[in-house]
Design brief:
Two copies of one chain form a homodimer. By secondary structure, chain A is α/β, with parallel strands linked by helices. Helices cover 37% and strands 25% of the residues of chain A. The first copy, chain A, has 14 helices and 15 strands. Chain A has a nine-stranded mixed β-sheet, sandwiched between helices. A six-stranded parallel β-sheet of chain A has the order 3-2-1-4-5-6, sandwiched between helices. In chain A, helix 5 packs parallel to helix 10. Strand 11 of chain A pairs antiparallel with strand 11 of chain B, so a sheet runs across the interface.
Chain lengths: 409, 409
Amino acid sequence: MAKIAILGFGNIGSGVLEVLRRNAASVAVRAGQPVEVKYILDVRDFSASPDAKLFVKTIDQILSDDEVSLVVETIGGTRFAYPYVKACLESGRSVCSSNKELVATHGAELIALARKKGCAFLFEASVGGGTPLLTPMHQSLAADVICEVQGIVNGTTNFMLTRMEKDGFDFDAALKLAQDLGYAETVDPGDDVDGRDAARKVAILASLAGGRHIYPQNVPARGIRGVTPADMAAAREMNCAIKLIAWAKRGADGAFAAGVEPMLVPLSSQLAGCSDVYNAILIKGEMLGDVLFYGKGAGKLPTASAVVADVIEALKKGAQVHDTLYWREEAPLEGFLTDSEPAAYYVRIKALPMADAARIYGACEVLNNVQDEMTLLLAGMTAADLAAAEQQVQAAGGQVALTLKKLNG
Amino acid sequence: MAKIAILGFGNIGSGVLEVLRRNAASVAVRAGQPVEVKYILDVRDFSASPDAKLFVKTIDQILSDDEVSLVVETIGGTRFAYPYVKACLESGRSVCSSNKELVATHGAELIALARKKGCAFLFEASVGGGTPLLTPMHQSLAADVICEVQGIVNGTTNFMLTRMEKDGFDFDAALKLAQDLGYAETVDPGDDVDGRDAARKVAILASLAGGRHIYPQNVPARGIRGVTPADMAAAREMNCAIKLIAWAKRGADGAFAAGVEPMLVPLSSQLAGCSDVYNAILIKGEMLGDVLFYGKGAGKLPTASAVVADVIEALKKGAQVHDTLYWREEAPLEGFLTDSEPAAYYVRIKALPMADAARIYGACEVLNNVQDEMTLLLAGMTAADLAAAEQQVQAAGGQVALTLKKLNG
């Protein structure tokens, strides 16, 4: 019998309890022993819950009980989650977490600590919700070298872009619907729409693929605020969809660059077919070629079932799992990771005279030039070229309203 | 240092050697020890190979060397592979195989033998080539119950259907191209085009999902020989693609039904977007909802890298892997598994008077009725209804030229 504790009894935490109970028999067979939740840590009042007796208010009650061999962390954020998870690993208890912010910020340190203490730190649910992704990446692709990752990893913005594309919504209307449906935060939706959530997730993917910690603050992230119905129509004319893509790729020196940005995705790409709240992540392996993982990127029971799969894995393998699931610590960089490879770009610019546009961008295709706004298709620009050009646009009194990189399949 | 043997030095077997050598350093880190190929069993003459000294002609030379702890089987078929693999497992050596026929026919027995002898029998590469599929199914979905699998698991027929759809090829021209490119067998392409290869693969998926061995001979399989350019056009008008779908689903009693048949796949389905030689497999979990795995279903290095990932897994976990990767033995059934749920069908019938069609099929939509041929869209028929109707068609002098089930997403 394995006795475990759940830290944080919100949506995912309560889902973990539900999955463990509903599938108790098969979990016991697969874990090699029954799994019982002995404690739930949550500062809120659950005295009316049928499980009231399980609730505790301090982590010490859990740490002081030697019967507890594993802890599930579903608090979110890092303020409490980080010290609690650290204390659990320090005590030799394995931890299974769904917390992308924790992993993106402290993953390398916590993995190293788990290895040192002979336990496991697992976090399959931190990217892609319930969709198996990190486990196949480190395990099934263990014999390969991952050279690139391109993914739709934020379901909220993908839902919004789908509504803009299919129903003609503008950004504000799409955001309002996403908020009404509970997909986006009502007070500050910036984590989703400005790409910060996606930056955390791709930092995890890039760290795992590249073997060195990449911090979310070093991942340049642009969100979808600038996208308009007219851009959607222009994309469609180019046989593309607009998607918020989180990407990471191995450079010639082996180090990974990463970014989050809205992109023109050719309709022939499997990523273009990923709509609504679904996530899709394309992994390019040197030997394997392209593999795509697709599924719901969120949701209580899907995410909880991924956490429970980690519980089974941690109980069976312990620290051994870190033979393939690891990356090493690195100090954060100054500034941003950048991609030095040139790409094609779609840019929409306001209040810039055509003569200035020609001077700044040179030969390029003008897709549209009406009233005070033009859209250009640029070939073979690097991110640095593009940033330099944007400064010149501003110096000439113009404003770059939207930049879309073209995904090369 | 782990010393291993490779049985069969064809396309996949030589790929395994190549992957082990090219990625030797990372394989060693992940496996916890270097992996060296000590023997290659192949009856052909490799005396001119730079690895000539590794080749042996009998399995006994491998079995009698205690240093060999693991064996890779890439012979294919069952005539030699079955007794060799059995002997290796009997001796306590783990086996990693890419052989779908072996697993579909003897999987339960070989898994049971591996467990008994404390070693591992792994076969990720047997379905989906290099695409991680079986490992996520048994491991990442360990906390869930799989209720349905729908997949494009045969790259050759998917390539042919893509050419028919996009380039207007008929069946014969598509087959010829597939043969010219080396995708289809030149002498007897029946394994691919008649669905037998897909039946073996879905037998493996259904066995793993349902926990009981399902034999390929019990999986009803219809191939793509009857599909014409006119059917492609009719499908397109219904916003569908025609795909050869291997499916398996859990019945009310927990037992799985399975089948292989050409289907009308709505363009909104992720499966419709899977073209050319790619495979795509949709797994429906009770908790998780839909998850899709997509990648190249064949190819030397992709498949070999999946075999090498299994080698790493076997070296690290041994028999423990079978806590989640297993199904129990069952005697083969008499006859075929069938699906009792009704579905919509597209049927194309030759030489049947309309009056007979109305009598046999009742109210149905007539899509086309020209010369000696009609196409009907039937709603709510079971497989048994459909078979009974087909007998009546034959009794009335007609002939059912093609049947396409409509996939329900």
